[in-house]
Amino acid sequence: MTMHNPSRPGDMVGNMIEELEITVTDASRHLGVARQTLNNLINNDTASISPEMAVRLEAVFGSTADNWLRMQANYDAARINERASEITKGLKRFVPSATRTEKPTLERA
Questions:
Q1: Nearest of 52, 67, 59 to residue 9 by alpha carbon
Q2: Cα(48)–Cα(69) distance, rounded to whole angstroms?
Q3: Is residue 91 part of a domain?
Q4: For residues 30 and 1, what is the distance between their CA atoms, to the nearest angstrom?
Q5: What phi and psi values does residue 103 have, to the nearest 5 degrees?
Q6: CA-to-CA distance for 14 and 39, rounded, in angstroms?
């Protein structure tokens, strides 16, 4: 089942850090990333959880890397679906010709 409005994973990371009552600086040290990297993930709407960050989050805070990546994919899919008609405007589905009887061949040099 697809969620229509899934939470942004960066917001979840920020909430988790807040609930643990640690600073972004402390959390970034535990994760082994620059403070700015974590700050961007939490505060920048376009920042995404990378596979590497997902592994780091799993090791330090729990859940699984797969779960973090699934949450990011669900969030991304929901956002892009909001723009699907804009993206596909003017595009037409490719349909192979029904009358084509010859197989394409490669030219030989």
A1: 67
A2: 9
A3: no
A4: 34
A5: -85, 140
A6: 9
How much is the pTM? 0.79
Domain residues for 13? 9-83
Inside any domain, residue 102: no
Q: Considering its fold, how many domains does the chain have in total? A: 1
- Which residue type, as a one-letter code, is found at position 24? V
Q: Identify the CATH number of the domain in which residue 37 sits.
A: 1.10.260.40
In this structure, is residue 108 part of a structural domain? no
Q: Please list the pLDDT of the chain residue by residue as tens digits (109 residues).
A: 455 789 999 999 999 999 999 999 999 999 999 999 999 999 999 999 999 999 999 999 989 999 999 999 999 999 999 999 999 999 999 989 876 666 666 666 5
